[in-house]
Amino acid sequence: MPIVISFVNLKGGVGKTALSVNFAAYCGTKGLKVLLIDTDPQTNATFSCISPVKWKRHSAEKGTIASIMGMRRHSSAEGTEVDANQVIIPDVFQNVDLLPSHLDLFTIDLDLASATARESKLKRALKDVSKKYNIIICDCPPNLTIPTQNSLTMSTHFAVPVSPDFLSALGIGILLNRIKEFCEDLQHDLQPVGIILSRVGRPAQHRAEITEDLRKKFGDLVFTTEIRERVAVSEAASEKKSIFQMSDPSAIAEFINPAIKSRN
């Protein structure tokens, strides 16, 4: 079975998508077969890999993650269930396939409120598909609702990107405790990869103190390498490229170091 890593945080704008997409791309360049799963209804990881036009066409013809999680389940008049294989978009990067997201996930907690084993729908839907991959990367929304729960349930590991500002760092302890409780309830073994300081350099009060406090409080769990706020990262996303296809060696180096540690 593959290694499955979820990138999680209770706050948005901390670099989850950039790390998810570029870690997937890095593993692909190393010859690993990778599945990138976008469980965030904002679809940022999806649009970092494919154009909105391609997504709209694929969503209508093949479906998205919402289709295989019990929303818009039937794609024909005969009520044929959507096959996970047809929903996955192959080769968005070298050796990287994409399971795209959809805005429908915004209401999935209401739609699946009475569903049994709702936190494991994604794992069950991908049971046979996942065997084709060496590693699976999940980009999660900034909460612990059903999409994130499904990502964690199928994951072997999780990583926590955090921006060194007060609001981003505030909930790390709460997040780790909630994940621990969630896994205990499901009797699921889930290992932390680490905390990654991301988007460093944005305006933030008391940045140095927050960074020092995180390293003191969580010790070796915090990666040594920090991911700075760089134009190349946003340009790569807008051009549907990975950071490794850009011409910024400093940005590439920053993404390689945590990628190596996460992969190991």
How would you sum up this structure, described in words?
By secondary structure, the protein is of the alpha/beta class. It has a single domain, classed as Rossmann fold, CATH 3.40.50.300. The chain is built from 13 helices and 7 strands. The chain has a 7-stranded mixed beta sheet with strand order 3-4-2-5-1-6-7, with helices on both faces. The relative contact order is 0.20.
Topology (SSEs and partners):
Elements: E1 3-7, H1 16-29, E2 34-38, H2 44-47, H3 52-61, H4 65-68, H5 84-87, E3 89-93, E4 96-99, H6 108-111, H7 121-125, E5 135-139, H8 146-154, E6 157-162, H9 166-170, H10 172-186, E7 191-197, H11 207-218, H12 231-238, H13 249-263
Parallel strand pairs: 1-5, 1-6, 2-4, 2-5, 6-7
Antiparallel strand pairs: 3-4
Helix pairs in contact: 1-13
Instruction: Give the CATH topology.
Output: Rossmann fold
User: What count of helical segments does DSSP give?
Assistant: 13
CATH class: Alpha Beta
Compressed to H and E, one letter per element, the order equals EHEHHHHEEHHEHEHHEHHH
List the strand order in the largest sheet. Answer: 3-4-2-5-1-6-7
Question: What share of the residues does DSSP label as strand, in percent?
Answer: 5-15%
Q: What does the main sheet amount to?
A: 7 strands, mixed
Structural class designation: alpha/beta
The radius of gyration over CA amounts to 18 Å
Instruction: State the separation between the terminal residues, measured CA to CA.
Output: 16 Å
Number of domains: 1
CATH superfamily: P-loop containing nucleotide triphosphate hydrolases
Q: What portion of residues is helical?
A: 40-55%
Name the poorly predicted regions: 73-79
Q: What general outline do the C-alpha atoms trace?
A: globular
CATH architecture descriptor: 3-Layer(aba) Sandwich
Question: What's the rounded overall pLDDT mean?
Answer: 90
Count of DSSP strands: 7
